[in-house]
Amino acid sequence: MAWSILFVAGLLEIAWAIGLKYTEGFTKLVPSVLTLAAMAGSILLLGFALKTLPIGTAYAVWTGIGAVGTAALGIVLFGEPATAFRLASIGLIVSGIIGLKLVT
What we know:
Radius of gyration: 14 Å
Order of helices and strands: HHHH
Shape: flat
Number of helices: 4
C-alpha cells in the first residue's frame, strides 16, 4: 500500500511542478490554488508512505517520478526538445527508480 501512496504522491509532484508554469509567478488564482493543493497533497502522501518505507528510497523514488513525469510533460505540453541524450537520461532515472523498488 505504501508504494501506491508514494506513486500518487509522485503524480501530485508532477502536477504541482507543471502547475507552477501555469501560475505565472502565482499571479493567477485558480492555477495557484490548484498548484498549492497538489504541493500539500504530495507532501502529505509522502509522509504517509514514509511510515513504512525507508526515507532514502522513498524520497529518491518520489523525486524520480516527479522528474521523469515533469520532463515528459515538458516535451509534450511545452515543446521542449526530445533529444536522444535527454530521453536516455530520463531512462536512467526510470532505471534507478525500478532498481530502488527492487531492493526495498
